[in-house]
Request: fold
Amino acid sequence: MRLNAKPLHELLDLLERKEIHPREVVADLYRTIAEREKQIRAYISLAPHEELLQECERLSEKPLRGLPIAIKDNISTRDFKTTCASRFLKDFQPIFDATVVQRLREAGTTILGKTNLDEFAMGSSAENSAFFPTRNPHDPERVPGGSSGGSAAAVAAHEALCALGSDTGGSIRQPASFCGIVGLKPTYGLVSRYGLVAFASSLDQIGPMTQDVRDCALLLNMIVGRDSHDSTSLERPCADYTQELGQEITGFRVGVPKEYIADLSGQAKTRVESWVKTFRELGTEIVELSLPHTKYAIPTYYLVSSSEASANLARFDGVRYTQRVSDASDASVEAMFSESRDQGFGPEVKRRIMIGTYALSAGYYEAWYGKAQRVRALIRQDFESAFKSVDIILSPTSPTPAFKLGERVSDPLAMYLSDIFTVPASLAGLPAISIPGGRVDGLPFGLQIIADKFCEAKLLRSAYAFEQMVRRET
Reply:
């Protein structure tokens, strides 16, 4: 087994015992990238091998020993372009690191490269990139999920030890499910958004994508904390999220929402039944519960997120740091704006901007955006009520395993519905994790666990218990 196929925490133990050297890990990573990247296409940009080796040597005494991590390409990095997989930003070079990147560098990591995504993080398949689609390492004819498809595919293909993604309505969890890895969306406000190119500011969160739950907890330790640059980040006591891993979850009450499993059939339903059985074997009590406003989650999400996207993307106008149409010198300012945005944005981004602009327009604001915010409050109240009687909530991450490339591109509604189980937790600002839950139709199928706000320790403890039980059984 190559070293890059081992989880980060195992590599750190080997490095601590001086049984391996960081350069060996880096060599194995680049060897795998050379073999697989032409097919997978997880990366938009990569660090040169020799430069990364030099940086690893410089950081070899820090906690993360200079080991490299992949970063989704909507997170600002001072030494890599940050394109958001958009023609508008194809040459944009930031002058600063996002707070999460800065914190990882301080902990001793290096940046391996920037991963592909759906343009401006708008999509569920990584097919909306302006540059190229990413493919699923388990079946290259299928999507890796989105929008953090490049990060998920890189970790699953062992082209990265771990990665950062961003999650607005499921963009970490759904690709983690499709690619058979672990992906965590933290509580809204736990991780700084400074340096994340904004899609929907009341929903966006950065989180880790890893090979196993311990790595997820380890990375979360590095990136959480109040940030004066982000007014939505919250002051919370520092915690070591690895501390509770391995503790029993006997006595936990596990909620299974009937709305999340009612329409499942075949192997997916059987898989959920096996998860319930495993949690019973772990000593938990299974509780059937109802989250009655789940059926409104998708329309609510797309009204709220598209409205915020319309406002956030107004800054991309061809005047400042974005691409301007080449023949705009004789055009009016208004025409230059219009033509630059028409050429700069892809179809899915345009669709969401138009939905959001309409929802915010005079005479429609209260009927659409205002009503969506009131329904969002009802969805949040569903969870608040549920967590009075349960510790965690269990569901599939997505209704299906990975679908084929091109299968849903012409059917936006079918694409949006792939996030039906992830969107509610995002609207409520709750932490949620996707972990490998076995296979459906021969493909990875993720188990999602949701916890109450700031209960990441309980969430990771539960996920780790399930992960270890499944490993013992196999």
